[in-house]
Design brief:
two-stranded parallel sheet, 10 strands, 317 residues, eight-stranded parallel β-sheet, 2 domains, single chain, TIM Barrel, alpha/beta, globular
Length: 317
């Protein structure tokens, strides 16, 4: 089977939610910056000519971009085989919008959810009624044949309910998932005490994660990625799905950070000196430096291995 070549492009910095853990910083969110319609089209065409055939739209919230339908339609005309949004789902609660973007060529969407109840979800989004709209979005996306992958961003409020959340959405017909740990940047740091209630030690999830393969098999669901978590705090039976090992058979390139000053969202993770002795060192996403300032580094330790690999990342002492 042919592997996809995937290009991710940031359309805007605006959003219609106020998630406490949004990794986009205050400057980015208030800048109202975007590369502009002409630049977006030029970038899409450039990457298509280089053989990229899977295009993902991010933000902000890409579905509120005023030209989103036209952008998706043009991408389809250019020959992209898969077209995806990363979305909070609010716009997809509108069946007319969902129908129009499907007709334009959208094939997939990743929906960010934070729980299986209004209380859990809206404690993060800050938007009353957003859970109800996500439920409508799930129905509309299914009705119009748009493939859905749910992104579950784990926090101190929902981490104990992970298995319940997966069962709930599986019962709604969702079979594809990605699990994200918090990024300690943007609103999570800026909001101080308000966001502190979401923070937790990543090692607290080891036992919960260990049960995921059995749950996935029982529910007939697939967990594609565990993001932003070092290998050493993830149980051995889950390490094959850590950050970046499965993007649907795609080779991924992210839009240049120069366009929207988003490069800091993808760089800067650190490693302890002892990490060089870890079996997974060459593939590990590393440790969030802001997380380390809050919780320290004691819970991270190298997984034994028989041979050394090259050093990567920034050592942290």
């Amino acid at each position: 089977m042919k592997r996809y070549k995937r290009f991710e492009i940031y359309l805007n910095s605006l959003c219609n939610q106020k998630c406490l853990h949004c990794f986009n910083g205050k400057h980015f969110r208030k800048s109202n910056e975007g590369p502009g319609f002409s630049r977006i089209c030029a970038d899409m065409l450039k990457m298509r000519k280089q053989g990229f055939d899977w295009l993902s739209f991010l933000g902000g919230e890409p579905t509120i971009h005023p030209e989103i339908i036209k952008i998706v339609s043009l991408a389809k005309i250019m020959g992209y085989r898969r077209l995806m949004t990363y979305s909070n789902g609010l716009k997809y609660s509108d069946p007319d919008f969902t129908a129009r973007i499907k007709k334009a060529g959208l094939t997939d969407t990743c929906l960010s959810v934070h729980g299986h109840t209004p209380g859990l979800h809206e404690a993060v989004t800050g938007v009353p009624g957003s859970f109800r709209k996500v439920m409508r979005a799930v129905e509309n996306l299914g009705e119009f044949g748009i493939n859905v992958t749910l992104i579950l961003v784990l926090n101190a409020l929902n981490k104990g309910k992970l298995k319940e959340i997966l069962r709930f959405y599986s019962s709604k017909g969702i079979k594809h998932y990605m699990i994200f740990f918090l990024k300690y940047q943007g609103r999570l740091i800026e909001n101080g005490p308000a966001a502190k209630k979401l923070m937790f030690r990543v090692s607290e999830l080891t036992k919960t994660l260990a049960g995921l393969p059995a749950l996935a098999a029982k529910e007939k669901i697939r967990i594609h990625n565990i993001e932003h978590a070092p290998y050493c705090v993830v149980p051995e039976n889950c390490r094959t799905i850590i950050s970046g090992t499965d993007y649907g058979g795609a080779r991924m390139v992210i839009q240049s950070g120069e366009l929207l000053n988003i490069s800091s969202s993808h760089k800067g993770y650190i490693f302890k000196s002892s990490c060089a002795d870890c079996r997974y060192y060459s593939d590990c996403p590393g440790i969030d430096p802001e997380y380390a300032k809050i919780f320290g580094l004691e819970e991270f330790s190298p997984v034994p291995r028989s041979r050394r690999s090259g050093r990567r990342g920034v050592p942290y002492h």
